[in-house]
Amino acid sequence: MACISAALERIKGNPLFALDRQTIEELCIEHGHEWRDRELDPATIVALFIQQVAHGNVSCCEARQIAGAPASVQAYCKARARLPLEVYQALLAAVVEAIVPSTRRSEHLWHGHRTCHVDGSSISMPDTPELQEAFGMPSGQKEGCGFPTAHLMVLFSASTGFLLEAWMSPFRTGDVAQASDAHGHLCPGDIVIGDDTYGGYAHLAALVKADLHGLFPTYHLRIVDFTKGRPHTVDGRNAEAGLPRSKWIKSLGREDQLVEYFKPKARPRYMSKEEYDALPASIIVRELRRTVRRPVLGKMTLTMVTTLIDPVAYPAADLLELRLQRWDVETNLGHLKTTMKMDVLRCQSEAGVRKEMAVFSLVYNLVRCVMLEAARRQDVPVRRISFADTLYWKRYAGPNEAMPVMKVNPDRAGRQDRADAQDGPGPRARWEFTGYAVVIANIAYFGAGMMVAPPARPDDGLLDIVAMRHGPRLAFLRVLLSVRTGSHVSRPEVSLDRAAAVTLTMDRAMPVAADGETLPWARPLPAGTPLAVRALPAALKVLAPPVAGPQPGAR
């Protein structure tokens, strides 16, 4: 029982003071849960569940051994199942309510606004009929060969990394379909930052209507033209191909303009007719485009749309910096899914996996609390405090143990992966986008002399990722014609990145080729099946002619 008492003291001593025996029991009473005064009371169950998740979502048997609980594994599992889902969710809500004020402190605001990252992902779970019915499975899988997969949407505080909310829904749910749920957790003036999925008219107009702001890449089907006084076309059958559907209003500088977006005639499927009719007929937004140069990776062109239309209050350079910080949401998701091992849940019922999700979110925020305090004490940005090191301390620290100096990750200026989820060597990459093709290469050329990945080097131990985003067909043809010279990488439809390891997952079945040949087991690769590619540095010995001139170490 000593270990259980230590676990209780450990969560009681958290920086939020939002978890203690009295709070847990009050929430149980509020939700109509009755229990007997025995070893596995609600507070002990929550403490064991938190320890179980903090140790990597280990089995119930191992969790019992970690805590030294005298109760049997079966008793713990049954007691955990009896505790209502509403109690777990109420505990998480209490923690979030306690951390929200810290996200509104002046040092965490951007130009007086709170910034939030929104993104979508997925998590797997055991193959049971109940979970198949609740969440569904990726398409293209034979019966009995896959696992139920839930769509996961998350809302993070951009400055602190706190997880403000997470939603589990059926796999086929679109990211933007749950945007209205995210809006309910925001306050007027907050800024939402996401990918181009959120850059459509309906979502932008919903933000304006709710007195919120947004900063996103322009929607991949939208034509953006910075020509002053340019013509535009209308939506519908009379639309003229090749012309933007936004009305030019005013130039704010080089590739920076105010335009008017008009409500499309077609209503998005995720909105009801009443919700869509309530949106304004048009909105004024700001479009801007900037090209940045990153060390090693070269140029990257970003075309953005935002509701922050005042160029004096919100300079273009500051908006670009804010946009580049969007990668932090991928790092945070990596902490949640990879470092904490939430990518595969263990429970076999819908209520069970939702309880797991609530406790994962709770533990993640407790770790973030420690990181925030460590950043204050060590006088470094919170994103540089190692999440893994903080999790390990939170996992093994004794009751009332003083916080040590936490590991500080190096400041990787100009790189998107600022903090490695595993605190290990080598950069990582994670993208989600809609497009025509993805090329993963370690040399610059394809067959027939096509320079598909100009920055690629065979001896640097890294993979170069070239992505052709969705756009007009004419733009796709222009990219193909410019591949031979390598000039396609300067086009806005093409994105470049670099990583030591890449995992590619597609939402539909597609063929995968390597060295010009379609892989036998990928004809096509089923939707939702991850394709992992990694570089093996110095794995091959290559005979090459001698290089002219003196060589290092030569005599």
Could you characterize what this model shows?
This protein is an alpha+beta fold. The chain has three domains: 2-92 and 347-396, no CATH class; 105-332, Transposase Inhibitor Protein From Tn5, Chain A, domain 1 (Alpha-Beta Complex), CATH 3.90.350; 435-534, Tumour Suppressor Smad4. It has 15 helices and 16 strands. It has helices at 2-12, 21-30, 42-54, 60-67, 73-82, 85-103, 129-135, 179-183, 201-209, 273-277, 316-324, 328-339, 350-378, 387-396, 473-482; strands at residues 115-124, 149-157, 163-170, 191-193, 213-217, 247-253, 256-262, 282-294, 298-306, 435-441, 463-469, 494-499, 501-504, 513-514, 517-518, 531-534. The strands form four sheets. Strands 3-2-1-4-5-9-8-7-6 form a nine-stranded mixed sheet. A three-stranded antiparallel sheet has the order 10-11-12, with no helix packed on it. Strands 13-16 form a two-stranded antiparallel sheet. Helix 3 (42-54) packs across helix 4 (60-67) and helix 13 (350-378) crosses helix 14 (387-396). The longest helix is centred in the middle third of the chain and has 29 residues, at 350-378. It starts with a helix and ends in a 21-residue tail after the last strand.
What fraction, in percent, of the residue positions are helical? 25-40%
The CATH topology of the largest domain comes to Transposase Inhibitor Protein From Tn5, Chain A, domain 1
Strand % is 15-25%
Which of globular, elongated, flat, extended, rod-shaped describes the shape? globular
In round numbers, the mean pLDDT is 82
Task: Give the CATH architecture of the largest domain.
Answer: Alpha-Beta Complex
Question: How many domains is the backbone divided into?
Answer: 3
Indicate the radius of gyration in whole angstroms.
26 Å
- Count of DSSP E strands? 16
Strand order of the largest sheet: 3-2-1-4-5-9-8-7-6
- Distance between the amino and carboxyl termini: 71 Å
Report the total helices. Answer: 15
- Any low-confidence stretches, pLDDT <50, length ≥5? 1-17, 414-429, 548-555
Structural class: alpha+beta
Largest sheet: 9 strands, mixed
The CATH first-level class of the largest domain comes to: Alpha Beta
